[in-house]
Design goal:
Layout: E1 13-16, E2 19-23, H1 33-36, E3 40-45, E4 55-64, E5 69-74, E6 80-84, E7 87-91, E8 97-102, E9 105-113, H2 119-122, E10 133-135, H3 137-140, H4 143-152, H5 157-168, H6 178-191, H7 199-206, H8 210-220, H9 225-242, H10 249-255, H11 261-272, H12 276-279
Antiparallel strand pairs: 1-2, 2-3, 3-4, 4-9, 5-8, 6-7, 6-9, 7-10
Helix pairs in contact: 4-5
């Protein structure tokens, strides 16, 4: 039997020492969120103003389980810096299904960088990090290992966020890269309420050629425009399926740009491992 974490189902917005913290149990992309919220407590914290061009939010995950529990996530087009019990790591964009086995009782602090923003720290095209986990010292130097140890010595989310802020603030450039900001704007355009489904449509909306859009995303985002468009509608599909009852699958397929319901089912099954009708069952 797995243990429950009290308060894991809360969802409130509050201020702590100058930071906005969002307590959320249904982060978009997390699969089987109701089950996960029984064992995992997730908090999300906004960055301070100087870091806002680079950091989308900080996240702190605490868990306590008696048996191994596997989390599954349809990842976003973002790079993460994590301080885990095993050490500090950088995760590039995971283009498949991200899975993580949780054991015993522990916590992790993560930094979700804005799409495009990690190019300032990587020193090379972000596409080189795709589907990889690398020691964070590769990008941030050995000092990040001390940060990782400090994060593991405390369990107070506010203290953990303060540690990450103090580490990152002296390391950000004085001015954001305009191309990184442009990449972030386009990812927002493509993923907020997905309505663009083909790369040529996306390039036209961006005012770029297809090739220029692909180069921009390889350099700054770490995933292709085609992947970003597909992942956005998979996120939307999973979100709709989580409501379970009375999903009009043919209508949803049309709304999300699939050729038919069969196409929708194949796409979802390939990404998640089961068809949406089964995923939607309570």
């Amino acid at each position: 039997m797995r243990s429950n974490i009290n308060g894991a189902r809360r969802a409130v917005l509050k201020k702590r020492d100058g930071y906005d913290a969002v307590m959320a149990v249904k982060a978009r992309g997390v699969l089987y969120p109701d089950e996960q919220s029984r064992y995992v407590d997730l908090t999300q914290h906004a960055p301070s103003a100087p870091l806002a061009p680079y950091v989308e939010h900080y996240w702190c995950v605490r868990w306590r389980v008696e048996e191994v529990y596997e989390t599954k996530v349809l990842s976003h087009p973002n790079v993460h810096l994590t301080m885990e019990p095993e050490g500090a790591f950088v995760y590039g964009v995971t283009r498949g299904l991200f899975t993580r086995k949780l054991e015993s009782e522990a916590h992790t602090l993560g930094v979700k960088f804005r799409a495009g923003a990690f190019r300032a720290f990587s020193g090379s095209p972000v596409a080189e990090l795709a589907d990889r986990r690398v020691p964070a010292a590769v990008c941030f130097g050995p000092e990040v290992d001390a940060l990782g140890r400090a994060v593991q010595s405390s369990s107070d989310p506010d203290e953990l966020v303060a540690l990450a802020e103090a580490f990152l603030l002296p390391r950000v450039p004085p001015h954001p890269d305009p191309d990184a900001l442009r990449a972030a704007e386009l990812v927002d355009l493509f993923t907020t309420g997905p309505s663009l489904f083909r790369v040529d449509e996306a390039a036209s909306a961006a005012g770029l050629s297809v090739r220029a859009l692909q180069r921009l995303f390889a350099e700054y985002v770490g995933a292709t425009p085609k992947w970003v468009l597909r992942r956005a509608r998979l996120h939307e599909l999973a979100s709709r399926a989580e409501h379970g009852d009375h999903v009009d699958w043919p209508a949803l397929a049309l709304e999300l740009g699939y050729s038919d319901q069969s196409h929708l089912i194949r796409d979802f099954t390939a990404a998640v491992g089961e068809p949406p009708t089964r995923y939607a069952r309570p």
